[in-house]
Structure formats: C-alpha cells, structure tokens
Amino acid sequence: MLNEDSRQLSYILEQLKGLEQLVGAFVNISRLETGLRKFLYHLLSSQYWLYIAMIMGYNQAIDKRKAGVLMKILVLLRHGQSEWNLENRFTGWKDVDLSPKGIEEAKSAGKVLKEEGYDFDIAYTSYLQRAIHTLQLALEEMGRIDLPVIKSWKLNERHYGALQGLNKTETAQKYGEEQVHIWRRSFDVQPPALKPNDERNPALQDLYHGINASELPLTESLKDTIARVIPYYEQEILPQINAGKRVAIAAHGNSLRALIMYFEQLSEEEITKVNVPTGIPLVYEFTDDGKMHKKFYLGDQDAIEAKMKAVVAQGKAK
Question: Record's family (predicted)?
Fold first, then answer.
C-alpha cells in the first residue's frame, strides 16, 4: 500500500512541475503578457486542478491511515428474484434459476455498483445457480467478467428441509401463520427434516459429490446456517479483506442474515426482524481495526423499503 502511495505521489509531483514552470513565466515581468496567456490557457484546458485535488486527497488518506480509520469495504448482494421466489415457494437448496425480474435486478445491481465507483478484487458465492447467475450478470454490467470468483456450498441458503418446494401461503393456510413464521424467522427452530432417501437430500445430488455426507444438512435453523457460514467467512474471506482486497459476496437471504448478525452483533431477537431485499447491494465499511463503521444499501430507498416489506409478507395466509 505504501509503495502504491509513493508511486501516486511521484506521479502527481511530476505533473505539478509544469504548473511551477508556468507560474515562473507569469511572474517574469519582461514576459508578463506571454506568460499570462500561457498560464490562463493551461489553467482552462489542462488537468492541473485535478492534480491539486489528487494531492489533497492523498494527504487526507494518509491522515486517515495514521488515525486508524481507513475503511475496508465489503459488499453483500442477495440474488435477484428466483423462479421460486416468484411462485412464493420455500426454496432452500433447490437449485432454481432467476426469474426475468431477477435477471433485471442483477443487472441493475451491477449498474449501480459501477455508477457509484465500486470495484472488486475477488468475489464469493454459493453453489446455487441463482446466486452464481446474479453475480455473473452484475459483473458483466461492471465490465469485470474477469474477476476471480470462489464458490462454496457453505454460503448456500438455509436448508428448509421438507418445506422445500411448498407454497408459503398454502403452508400458512394449512399450519397457521404463526407456525410458518416460526419456521421462517425463529433463530433455532428447524423445519421438518428430509428423510435420508429423499431425492432432495443434497448428499444424493451430483452437485455435492465429494463432500462428506455427514456435513450436508437435511434441515437447518438460522443458528445452523450461522454455524457453517461464519467459520467459512473467518477462515477464507476475512483474510482477504484484512489484506486490503475489495470483496463482494453474492449469496442468499439467510446466509447473508448470518453475516449481518455477525457484523452488527445483533441478538437472536433482533436478527428475526432483519429482511434482506433481492438484488440490492448492501455496503459495509469497516475501520482498519475491523470494527463496523457504517452500512447502507445502494439504490432508491423507497423501493428498497418496499422490497423488505414484501419479504415479510411472504409467509402470510392472505
């Protein structure tokens, strides 16, 4: 980082030499008219003011680094609307793709990231197509299809067990809204588990070939999801952030809620009220010592609020 700073400063100072020469011409009385014309010409047509701004920004960055408040950036992105989100089904580990709306959400996420000046050195995503596809579309919009991407099943959505594939509204009508709310939003209650011979068991699917079957769930609570997401984050992703890498994670509502709870040190009660909208970049800024400084969603805040409310309404009997 310091070598990069030195190179940038050397470049800026080299550019400022031209400005110094022009000022010298300007103050030379015998050449006042010529010097003035040259100075004004270059003042209007060159980028000297930009160089001055750059060196001012450089000094501010050094001051921030000395104060220990240089920000590390992490961007979280929930996949765009999936085909089963559209049909209001419990999805879990079912490998469905994006809906047409989800495709547009993913592209919009990439556009806003580019417009706001974000770029990445590495990205992480799950084994599930809806998250992978979202990341691909966003990176295409950013012109960064060359970005290294690491996939891990440990970033998968929470496994919804025997609920996977069921319509949420119909399930609420059958079991009651309160029970569905407990299955969806409680911290440590698991939905009914799959039977080991169920074709939905990930241990029976080619996608998870080579992974120890004992590690693969038949159902999960949010607590269980946290137990696989956070160790992976600490062991694989956090070292990249600490090394100064700009990181993006494209994942799922509950695997991202696991990270949000961890970053913000939320209680079990507080995390039940957190809803992550589809296709909206969530930016976290951390100080150099790893403390969360602030977070914010990129995009229209009213639209984001409406998406959050829509997530809450999914488990109602209507």
Answer: Belongs to the phosphoglycerate mutase family. BPG-dependent PGAM subfamily.
